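Private note to self, pasted from the team thread so I don't lose it. Backbone tokens:
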């Protein structure tokens, strides 16, 4: 399987791998012109299955999240501390759903 590279250039930013776990990754997002740290991207490891696209064989590979994946299986954090908390929380929707359910219960009590 092909792993995501340690450095990715995308949409005017550099993404440098900060931490790799068994289920998630943290990439530091920096501006490509001045190196300003814009954010940290935390996301679950997703694997795209092998396939043929336009006659080209693509191997099984990790994928970087697209814009529409954020809030589902990828999150942007303003600093490394918040990114690490998200990473260590399991980066799971299950935990997020519990928080949402608790918030709804509190609203019902009012």
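Design output:
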């Amino acid at each position: 399987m092909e792993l995501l590279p340690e450095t990715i250039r995308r949409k005017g930013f550099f993404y440098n791998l900060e931490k790799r776990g068994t289920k998630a990754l943290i990439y530091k997002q920096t501006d490509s012109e001045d190196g300003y740290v814009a954010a940290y991207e935390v996301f679950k490891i997703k694997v795209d299955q092998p396939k043929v696209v336009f006659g080209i064989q693509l191997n099984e590979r990790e994928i970087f999240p697209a814009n529409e994946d954020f809030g589902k299986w990828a999150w942007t954090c303003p600093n490394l501390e918040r990114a690490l908390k998200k990473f260590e929380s399991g980066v799971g929707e299950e935990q997020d759903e519990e928080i949402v359910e608790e918030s709804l219960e509190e609203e019902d009590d009012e």
